[in-house]
Amino acid sequence: MRKPKYIRDSLFPSAIENGDLQVSGEHHQLISNNRSKKLIIFFSDTVTKQKQFNFWEVGNKLSAHANILFVKGWCNSWYQDGVRGIGSDLDSTVKNINGWMSKEGVKEVFCTGQSMGGYGALLIGGLLGAKIIAFGAETLLDIPHGQYSRKADRLIAIQHQDLSISFKSGLNAVLLAGEEAANDIYCAQRMLSVPFVNVHTMRYVGHDPAGYLRKRDRLEPLLLDWINGSIFPEMEEFGRALEEKDFPENFYLGWCAIRDKDYPLAITKLKTAVQLYPACDEARRLLGVALNAEKMHLEAFEQFSVASALRFRAQSHLGMANSLRFMGEISQARRAYLKIIKAFPENAPSHYGLGLCYIKLENFEGAASCFKNALKYDPKNTTYSKRLKTTKSIIK
Question: What CA–CA distance (Å, rounded) separates 316 from 305?
Fold first, then answer.
C-alpha cells in the first residue's frame, strides 16, 4: 500500500467559523469577489505540494468574474472524504460549502478539475447541484491499471466507486476525455447513461485535456464563457471514440493486456478496436507495440506508419523506426530516428535507437555519441549506461 506524501492527524483545523470560510487553509484557498454571486471551485489532481493548487493562474484571472475556491485532497483519496478542514468528511464538506454560499448570497456554483480533480468536481459538484466541467476524469474507480489503482493511498474507503451509478438521476456536466487515454475512454462511455451529461472525446489528446487547452490559450476563455452561460462549443478535436459501442472496451482491454505483457490478447483486442475506429492513432500505435513484441515486425511497421500519417508524434514514429531496425532495414531506420530527433531533440529512445543502428554499421564512435545523448535526457536508464560502457570498451 502506498503511503501519502505527508500524513496529518485525523483532526484537521476547521476552516469554517460561524458559517464563514477562512481565506486559506492547508487544503483550500479562497479568493472572494463581493461583486459576484458566482463561485468556481477548482479541484486539484493527485497530491500537489503544500500550499499549491492546480488551475492557480487561470483561477486568479477568473477571480475578476467570480468567487474562487481552490481545493485539494490531504492524500490521494479521490475526495471520498471531502476536503479536510472545510469538512470532516464528504457530507460535512458539502454542507459547509452550501452554508457558506447561502450566507454570502452565492446563487451559482461551478466545479472543474483534471484527473482526480475532475472526479472530485463531478462528485462534490454533483452533491452541490453545481454546473461541472471535468477533464480526464476516471469515473469508475479501481479498474485495472487505472489512475486510482496506481496512485490511490487507500486510507479512505471508497464511497462512490461508479459515478454513473451514484448520479444515475443526472448531472449538469460536461466530461472531456482524451482519445490517447484508453482508461478515460472506457470510463467516459459509462457516463453516457447519465442524464444531462455531455461527453466528448478529443482526438490526439491524452489524460490531460485541461493542459492541452491551457497550452493553446483556450482554457481561460472556455471557462469564462461557461460561467457566463454560453453553450459549450464544438471543438475541432472532438473524435468518434464513443460512436462504436464496442470500441472503448476493446481499446481499454488491449491497453491493459500490453501493460500485463499479454501480447496475443492485446493483438486480438486492438485489432478489433482498429477495425471499429480506423482513425484512432493511439489504438494503431498500441497494436504496433504488441505486434513488435510478438516479432510480427512488418505488420507492426504498417500500424505505426498509419498512426504516424494520422498524427506525427514521437511515439508512433519511434515504433516505425524500431520496426525497420528489427527487420534489418538499418539505413531506413537511421533516417527515421534522425527525423524524430530533429523534431523532438530530447527524445532519449530515438538517440538510443540511432546508436543501435550505428552499432550495426560498425560506427562505434557514432554509437557512443548517441548513447551519451540518450543518457543526457534519461540519466537513470541503466540500459543506456550499460550499452555506452560496452561500446566504449569496443572503441578501446
Answer: 8
Residue 273: exposed, middle, or buried by beta-carbon count in 10 A (0-12, 13-18, 19+)? buried
Q: Can you give the three-state secondary structure of the chain, one letter per residue?
A: CCCCCCCCCCCCCCCEECCEECCEECCEEEECCCCCCEEEEEECCCCCCCCCCCCHHHHHHHCCCCEEEEECCCCCCCCCCCCECCECCHHHHHHHHHHHHHHHCCCEEEEEEECHHHHHHHHHHHHHCCEEEEECCCCECCCCCCHHHHHCCCCCCCCCCEHHHHCCCCCCEEEEEECCCHHHHHHHHHHHHCCCEEEEEECCCCCCHHHHHHHCCCHHHHHHHHHCCCCCCCCCCECCCCCCCCHHHHHHHHHHHHHCCCHHHHHHHHHHHHHHCCCCHHHHHHHHHHHHHCCCHHHHHHHHHHHHHHCCCHHHHHHHHHHHHHCCCHHHHHHHHHHHHHHCCCCHHHHHHHHHHHHHCCCHHHHHHHHHHHHHHCCCCHHHHHHHHHHHHHHC
Q: How many CB atoms lie within 10 A of CB 279?
A: 15
Torsion of CA 172, 178, 183, 184, to 10 degrees: -10
Which of 231, 174, 182, 233 lies closest to 205, judged by CA?
182
Q: What's the pLDDT at 47?
A: 67
pLDDT tens figures, 63-102: 999 999 999 998 999 999 999 989 999 999 999 999 999 9
Tell me how far apart the terminal alpha carbons of the chain are, to the nearest angstrom.
Answer: 48
Position 20 scores a pLDDT of: 65
Which CATH number, 3.40.50.1000, 3.40.710.10, 3.40.50.1820, 3.40.50.300, labels domain 16-227?
3.40.50.1820
Report the CATH superfamily, name and number, of domain 247-395: Tetratricopeptide repeat domain (1.25.40.10)
Stated pTM of the model:
0.91
CA–CA separation, 391 and 369 (whole Å)? 10
**Domain map of the chain by residue range?**
16-227, 247-395
Model pLDDT for residues 181-196, shown as the tens digit of each residue: 999 999 999 999 999 9
Low-confidence ranges of the chain (pLDDT < 70): 1-21, 47, 50
Residue 173 β-bridge partners = 132, 197
